UniProtKB/TrEMBL annotation:
InterPro entries to which the protein is assigned, alphabetical: Acyl_CoA_acyltransferase, GNAT_dom, Trichothecene_AcTrans
Organism name: Aureobasidium uvarum
Lineage: Eukaryota, Fungi, Dikarya, Ascomycota, Pezizomycotina
Record-level Gene Ontology MF annotations: acyltransferase activity, transferring groups other than amino-acyl groups
All copies of domain N-acetyltransferase, residue ranges: 66-237
Record-given protein name: N-acetyltransferase domain-containing protein
Pfam families: Acetyltransf_7 (PF13508)
Amino acid sequence: MSFSIKSVDVALAPSIAKAMVSARWAEPHWKALFESTTTPTQIVYDLSQRLPWNLINNRTTKRHQVAIDNATGQVVAYIRWILPTHLASTDPVVWPEAQVAEATPEDRAVYEQMFKAVSDDGKVQGMRMDLLEYLNTPLEEMDAKINEGGPFLCKLSLDYLTTATEYQRRGIGAMLLKAGLEVADAHGLRSYVTSSAAGAKLYQNHGYKTVETVTMDYSQFGGTEPVSDYFMIREPRQ
Ligand SMILES: CC(C)(COP(=O)(O)OP(=O)(O)OC[C@H]1O[C@@H](n2cnc3c(N)ncnc32)[C@H](O)[C@@H]1OP(=O)(O)O)[C@@H](O)C(=O)NCCC(=O)NCCS
């Protein structure tokens, strides 16, 4: 089997949503975030309706790529990066092949409508907001602590990485990661990620070091074991 990196357009939203949910559903704390009546099929559908709006917004700083299976053309993994603001509006554009094309005003209106139709006040339908807030608050606090001060403003943040469950452990995550790290090195940027336990080793193998860890016990929400997140930084290579 062989895989290639491809740029992202909104038409890929359903297949990106499928790859994202397939991987995250295997994580107990992510599954716990949803009401028991919410099915993965519903989550994939809702996400596919929300994604076009998310893909076309903040396009000056967001960069996206997918990996596809060369035999089938199927999307098997997705990565999203955030450029530092000083690289957001340069001429020429930094990393243009990873930027989603600008939408027409008519398309923007359609994508916004699609987003709203599956959202409760901008929030994901069927999600347990009390658990989300409980798990996210310490992560946001740690993120703010790490990011206070100048040097970390010059960073390339890895915002999302997911490989569909059945395609994991074939080097696809590493292939996508390396493409972003080449950009980081070319521009002398630190790279920053908040990683799940599943991703930490991969990032470590590519030069990231853990600077902080947050472990949360969510047994009062039905969790059977604590969940850890790793805050990791990689220095640029010459
Ligand atoms: C984390 C994640 C993105 C990794 O994706 P992946 O495509 O499986 O990544 P890779 O295949 O490049 O590397 C994963 C492991 O497989 C190993 N591997 C790579 N090619 C392999 C092969 N051909 N055979 C066996 N193992 C292989 C790598 O060495 C790596 O092992 P290690 O990190 O345990 O040493 C994926 O597990 C995932 O989507 N998890 C759920 C979402 C998540 O946690 N994302 C990260 C949040 S920041």
